[in-house]
Each structure stands twice: as C-alpha cells, then as structure tokens.
Amino acid sequence: MHLQQEDEFGEEESDQEFILNILAASPSTRDSRGYMASFHPPTPEPAITLEAELPTAVPPAAVSAAEPDNQLVTQLLNPIVRRPALVKIQGPFTDHQLASIARGIHYLQKLGLVSVVVIDRDDIPPYESENAAAAEAQRTLVLRDVERVVHYLTKARAPARPILATVARLSEEGDVYVEAEGLDHVRRAVEDGEIPVLMPVALDQGCRSRRISANGVLCALAEAMSTSSEGSVPITAAPPGGRLDLTPVRLLIINREGGIPSYARYGLPHLSINLSSEFDYINRTFQPNWRQSHPTALSNLALADECLSHMPRTSSALIVSHRSPAALIANLITNKPAHSSSLPHALLEQSEGRITPDTPTLIRRGMPVRILRKMEDIDKAKLTTLMERSFNRVLNQDAYWARLEKDLDFVIVIGDYAAAAVVTHEGRDEGQDICYLDKFAVLPSHQGDGTVDFLWVALRDETYGLGLQDAANPSVGSLSGVGRGRDLVWRSRANNPVNKWYFERSNGFVICGTNKMFWCDAEQRMREIAQETGGLMRVVDPSESDRIAKWAPVIENIKSAWSD
C-alpha cells in the first residue's frame, strides 16, 4: 500500500512538472492559435497581425501560483486531433537519461504529438559488419536499446510497442524505402494508442535483415507516411473509419551533442536554420574540431533536409540534447527556437542562462534570401502586393517608386516576396547619409513561421552588423560581411503593437512626432569603443554627439508611403 501511494504521488509530481513546463514555454497568442489549428482544427483560426512575442522565463512566484485548470493548459491537455512525429533517439544513453527522454515523449503524447521512434547508436559503426558474429552483436545491442526505450516509455505512462518486424526495404541500388505492408506495423501501433519503437534495419533483395543507418529509415518513413496519407482522416482519441493521417509534423533528434554548432556564434549552437539559404553554407563553414565534438551534426542536418522535404511547410525539425527535455514541449507549442535568432548577439551569447552548448537547434525548410541593389531587379507588382497585404493599406505607388529611384540602398527579399525589407539613404540633401529601414513587411501567411527572424538577421548582416566575421551570411547578393557597419534607423507609430519586438532588437528609441524613432548602433564601432575604454561603454560616445538630434528632423519629414 505504501508503494502504491508513493507511485501515485510520483505521477502527481510528474503532472505538475508537465504543467510547469507548459507555462515556462510562455506561448504567445499566435503560438496558441498555431497549436490549436493543428490539434483543435474544428475551430477556425482568427486573422492575425504581425506581432513577435518571445518566450520568456516564468517568474517562480507565477509558476508556484499556477493552477492545473489554467485555461491554456486545459486546452493543451485536451487535443482533439493527434499528429505524428518522427523521433530519433541517438544513444547510447544511461538509464537515468532514457527515463528523462521517455518523460519528454510522454509529455508530447499528452499534448497530441504521437511519436514514431527509431533507435540509433553512436558507438557502433553506422552499417552492419561483414563479419556475421559482429553483425549479430550489433543487432543485439540495438534490440536491447529498443527494449529499454519501450520499458522506460511504459514506465512513464506512455504505452509503447517494439516493432521487431522489418519495416524498411533496400533496393538493388541501396536506396531505402517503406512499402505499405511495412507501414501497416506503424499504423496499427498508432491506432492502438501505442508509440511504435523501430530498429534501424531493412530487408535486402535476398530477404535478409540488415542493420542500416537510422537516418535512412527515418527518411524512408517521412516519405512513406506523407504519401500514404492522401484522403486520410486525422488521428483522434477515438478514430473514425478510414485511413489515419500519418503525415509527420515534426522531426525530433534527441542526442548527446546538442544543436548544430554555428560559425557565427563561435561554436555555440545555431538557434534557427533556414535550409533553403543556409544548408550549403553551414557545410562549408563547419570547423574541423567540430567533427570531434559534434560528429553527427552534418548528417543530422542532411536528415532534416530530406525529411522536411516530404513534410508540410509548417513542419520543423529540432535537434536537442537529452539534457533539455523541456525544449520538446516548448517547441511543440510554439514551433519556435529557444531564443529568437534576431535578438542582439551580445544579449544571446553573453547573458547568463542564454545560449549554451545544449541549446536546441530548430530547422525549417525556409526560403531563399536575396539582396537586390538595383531598381530594375525589383518586381514592383509583387513588392506592392506584399506591403499592402502586410500593412493592410494602399500604397501610393507613383510617389513611392519615384522616391526609391532616388534613395534606394537595397531590398532584402525572402522567397517569392513572402517578406521584404526596404532600406534607403536618407538626409543626403542635409549632408547626412542615414541608413533607414523604410519598410519591413511579412505576408500574414508567413508571420509566426520564422520568416521574420530570417529577414531581420539578413538585415543586421547588411547594415549594423556589417564588418564583423559573423555577418558573412550566404544570401544571394550579400556583402558577405565585407565593409563598415552603419547605424540603422527606422520609425514606427507610437501605438504600433510591434514596438515591443523592435525595442528588444534596438539600442534605443526617442519620441519623434507621432512616431517612435528606433536605432541599432553599428556593432563594429561599438566594439572598437569598448576596446578603447577598457570594456567600459560610455552612454554617449563623443563620436555620436548630436547624431540623434540630427536624425530626428530628417526621419520625421519622410512622407508616408500610403495613399490612405
């Protein structure tokens, strides 16, 4: 009886930890809508406007006072629809580590994410040995890990099923694929409310079971689960008739390395990766010493690239250390990185408790990034549509294009004008050359999917971050970090809800008529001043004297671009 009471108390403690992890994720209104759209689809998603609420830590007092019947928590704990996720558990892990991972997967299941798990081992060769005895020993190790994962998932109250059948097949060319018969093993487990746990094995042309790369199995599953779901129905607690929708919406890679090391962050992990523009660049700039500390980083990046190509555009991949289980919950609810990649580098890299070697890396398919420096390269019709839809206002086209003909510096374009930043030269008639952010626009359909951060990072690298090694971004038309950084200035309506987001990325602002004027200091100059003063920053350096007073009248007198 004592043991039963102790076990029940443990379950209660686990539920409290789960609720605290949800609250600690601090999902914004848009985050909650995005989650509800996937896991509570009967409710139509309201119209959204550009806002950028970032996950922040919950004060201990607020956490201790939180009640389980919190409205958001109640909604999150009662998903109507369940969505699959592909999960790679990349061991070996100790029993304690596996228990922590199992709790994280159980929490995801409670939130509606059904994991399809593939086991991997870093400590044995990626492919089966030609020696029969060695091959059998390898398979035995992986089988034991399958059994251990199933054990700890079940212990964490997440029913799991070992899939000992060979789900994948090998073609004559060595390609891995999953047929309908193999996928049925996964489907039946999910239908029965159990988490399928698979070995990285495949049947070759001779019908022999061979251990292969776990990445190959995951890629084959991503393709098969997506293509088999046409005309299917969502997974619910009590599935109606018809085939279940097995399309995966997340790829989770749980390892011992943590996220992918970043060239721009001097080896600390990437926060967010835009595969469409960064995949080749990350491979080129991967440092030799990282192949020792992060031996599977590039193969996991390739895995994410392949799997996401088969998954919905809103899907993401998360590479996370086993030491960061709470990140799994935060990512599911917000579909965002642990910290916004567009925040100032100093804030992210120097503040205590921010980026660490265990910070997860969020990966999206993303879109290409281009920098256009000539008017003839700009698609005026598409840029007009973007700005009018983003701001919900009508552009005074004749006046606006005439002004850009005279003052254009460059335009950053994401994808096919899904987002853009227009930068101009201002104040040259007054003997100044102010680097001015004239427009920052994101289509409503891309607000909240990481596009805004990709756009701001490119903007930083071409303006106030220019001249630094970490500004050598891979965007087409980029200056690649070569040049001298410039202060970036922009204005925003005083009551604009985006101002909080601007404030977090700026060095300051002043009231300028009916607007707020923000600016970002050129980082190269700030570092030089810090070196000259022994690391002590003056509030206003002599070189900056009166600059704000000179900017203000120029910025205030810029005419509105809108007809209304």
Descriptive tags:
seven-stranded mixed sheet, GNAT_dom, EC 2.3.1.1, Carbamate kinase, 20 strands, 3 domains, disordered N terminus, alpha/beta, nine-stranded mixed sheet
Your description of this structure?
It is a single chain. With 564 residues, this protein is α/β, with parallel strands linked by helices. The protein has three domains: 1-78, no CATH class; 79-364, Carbamate kinase, CATH 3.40.1160; 369-556, Aminopeptidase. Helices cover 38% and strands 19% of the residues. The strands form three sheets. Strands 1, 2, 3, 6, 9, 10, 11, 12 and 13 form a nine-stranded mixed β-sheet that branches. The N and C termini lie far apart (74 Å).
Summarize the structure.
The protein has 564 residues and is of the alpha/beta class. The chain has helices at 2-24, 29-39, 60-65, 71-76, 95-110, 132-155, 180-191, 214-227, 275-284, 290-293, 297-308, 326-334, 345-350, 380-391, 397-407, 451-462, 499-505, 523-532, 547-556, and strands spanning 81-91, 113-121, 160-163, 168-170, 176-178, 195-198, 201-203, 209-211, 235-236, 250-255, 272-274, 316-321, 361-364, 369-372, 408-414, 419-426, 434-442, 488-493, 508-512, 515-520.
Radius of gyration: 26 Å
Going by CATH, the architecture of the largest domain would be: 3-Layer(aba) Sandwich
User: How helical, in percent, are the residues?
Assistant: 25-40%
Q: Assign the CATH class of the largest domain.
A: Alpha Beta
CATH homologous superfamily (4th level) name of the largest domain: Acetylglutamate kinase-like
- Relative strand content: 15-25%
Structural class by SSE content: alpha/beta
Q: Could you tell me the mean pLDDT?
A: 83
Total strands: the figure is: 20
- Low-pLDDT runs of 5+ residues are 1-10, 42-69
Shape: elongated
CA-to-CA gap between the ends?
74 Å
Largest sheet: 9 strands, mixed
DSSP summary: helix tally? 19
CATH topology grouping of the largest domain: Carbamate kinase
Question: What is the number of domains?
Answer: 3
InterPro entries: AceGlu_kinase-like_sf, Acyl_CoA_acyltransferase, GNAT_dom, Vertebrate-like_GNAT_dom
GO cellular component, one term: mitochondrial matrix
GO molecular function: L-glutamate N-acetyltransferase activity
EC number: 2.3.1.1
